[in-house]
Amino acid sequence: MREIVVLSGKGGTGKTSIVGSLAALAERKVLADCDVDAAVLHLLLNPSVKQDNEFWSGQVAHIDPDKCNQCGLCQELCRFHAIRDFQVDSVSCEGCGFCSHVCPVEAITMKENLAGHLFVSETRYGPLVHARLGIAQENSGKLVAQVRQRAKQIAQEQNLDYIISDGPPGIGCPVISSLSGASLALLVTEPTLSGMHDLERVIGVCRHFGVPALVCINKYDLNEENTRQIEAHCSVQGVDVVSNIPFDNVVTRSIVQGVPVVDYSDGRVTREIKRMWGILSAMLGNGSRG
Amino acid sequence: MIISIVSGKGGTGKTLVATSLALSLKDSHKVVILDCDVEEPNDHILLKPVITGSEPVNIQVPGIDEKKCTYCGKCAKVCVYHAIAVLGNHVLTFPQLCHGCGACSYLCPEKAISEEPRQTGVVEWGHSDGVGFVHGILTVGEAMAPPVIRKVKEHANGNGIVIRDVSPGTSCPVVESIKGSDFCLLVTEPTPFGLNDLALAVETVRKLEIPCGVVLNRAGVGNAGVEEYCRKEKIPILFTIPLDTEIARLYSRGIPLVDGMPQWKNRFGQLFDRIKEIVDERNRGIKR
What we know:
The complex is a heterodimer. By secondary structure, chain A is an alpha/beta fold. Chain A has ten helices and eleven strands. In chain A, the strands form two sheets. Chain A has a nine-stranded mixed sheet, with helices on both faces. A two-stranded antiparallel ribbon of chain A has the order 4-5. The longest helix of chain A has 18 residues, at 140-157. Chain B is α/β, with parallel strands linked by helices. Chain B folds into two domains: 2-57 and 121-287, P-loop containing nucleotide triphosphate hydrolases (Rossmann fold); 66-111, Alpha-Beta Plaits, CATH 3.30.70. Chain B contains eleven helices and eleven strands. In chain B, the strands form two sheets. Chain B has a nine-stranded mixed sheet, sandwiched between helices. In chain B, strand 6 and strand 7 (131-138) form a beta hairpin. In chain B, 50% of the residues are buried. Classes of the chains: A alpha/beta, B alpha/beta. The interface between A and B is large, with 61 and 59 residues.
């Protein structure tokens, strides 16, 4: 079983459109949406939810006003400035529990925190594991780890060939959690200076965690000079550019219809994504039926 | 006044709006732009600032004095992040897991734990053509953006207009970035993806009780879902940018919209006036 994670550094370069298309092209796979704080893959896959599990993670301090003698020690020691006027700001609290250990009158208890939901769904393309982190919650990395773990379990139970996951933007905690130990990272970029800058940093993260990376340049014809620079730069870095996808409003139209672009159109975008999947599946070795 | 540029979904045009808004206001106001997207900062690409100073961002991680340590295990027990383990006569620390809460050093009965700085990023500041500039850069391979964001925010000293360019999403880095803002400008695009993530961004700013308005970018593609949502939720659409390949090309070359198309300057000025009206109105309401 091989796990492909689609990342980008910069947001909005087309990760989800690519993952939706790979969902339609690859056989024998489970899909995972690892962008747990702004998940949208379900909008292309129209899932029916089969399991809805609560995601309890971390703790939040709670001050019992009847016991609190307002000594102020907790406020003074909290590094996250989460206690003001003897009340806890649950958004700022990082759940370290320092305050509960030092409170001289034991007025502070740590309460378990419902941080989100994890779903296992059926789609017309196969099983999908996705999640919904609560608004302004911490621990997105932990929820991502659970999404991947559940996807892996499904892949093993059903003897599937691939896990295809849609990653979050950025390079921080949820990205690291999506990436570590994956077989391959497909990095979707665009030929803008921002896209190029962000690609370089996400290539750095892949290298740091020892995950092989391939690059796909989306909307390559928006600025062909930049596209050539990305290709040259990737070649220096020893990273292959496997696909140049043209800019075409058909992608937006397919999103509006809630369908992966490869199932919406037979045009040049679809042909290029199919070609890319051919290369990816050949490189990944097993179960190539693209 | 502090205005945060937020989106939920990535790639909707936050950086375009943040930089052009700053450049449009600099002749009439003192303006500082803070790039709080420390995972993937991009404002410097458009603004090409002169950097005049920098400062490392450290978090405090435990250093164990083995001469004093009695291996009682208290530190490992209090650390909820599992950043310390005591195994027999060994104390192992995992600095990458440490959040720097300080509980272990304070609670160690032998005072055997001191705190040592570990660098996780850097903050740089300077100016660009009359706009004050600050950004933070999270070190590649590091997971925790909020300490770097906190440091970036410390560098904006009070008066004038502060524009914070925020990372996509709705979790801790976004919350840390927008906390303390007077207004959030939510940048979206007219697609189901844009709408889905706009609704999440709205929930986030409402949780923090910050007033907001919408910028609709790439108008003309997609569908009317975002406009219907805004009408229903009574969120004003303050600004519209059409889908225009010329605008996309300028951005691709790192040229701010108002430099490539100066006719936009006035419109960004008017956008600020609308924001100011909303913020003033709200402040009057609170005083009453």
